[in-house]
Amino acid sequence: MKETLLQVDGMSCPSCIRHIDSALGQLAGVEKVEVKLREGTVLVRHDASSAPLPALVDALRDAGYESRPHAA
């Protein structure tokens, strides 16, 4: 399992948290989704072979959110 931290644009309310959790949680290989609204980040614990980074970004885009790997 891998943990990927994403910066997500456009999150503004608790409804966004549920929407993002649902969009990522339905992907095969995603074990855990932790949305931090205040920081604008999402931590995803996933199997990188069945849920690679592009699949995570695409799922968020389909849900209406632009995202990218979080720069440390």
Description:
It is a single chain. This protein is α+β, with helices and mostly antiparallel strands. The protein has one domain (2-69): Alpha-Beta Plaits (2-Layer Sandwich). Helices cover 31% and strands 35% of the residues. It has helices spanning 14-25, 53-62; strands spanning 2-9, 30-36, 41-46, 66-69. The chain has a four-stranded antiparallel β-sheet with strand order 2-3-1-4, with helices on one face. A hairpin with a 4-residue loop joins strand 2 (30-36) and strand 3 (41-46). 22% of the residues are buried. The mean pLDDT is 94.
Question: Which key terms come to mind for this protein?
Answer:
metal ion binding, HMA_dom, 2 helices, Alpha-Beta Plaits, 72 residues, 35% strand, 31% helix, HMA_dom_sf
Short synopsis of the structure:
The chain has 72 residues and is an alpha+beta fold.
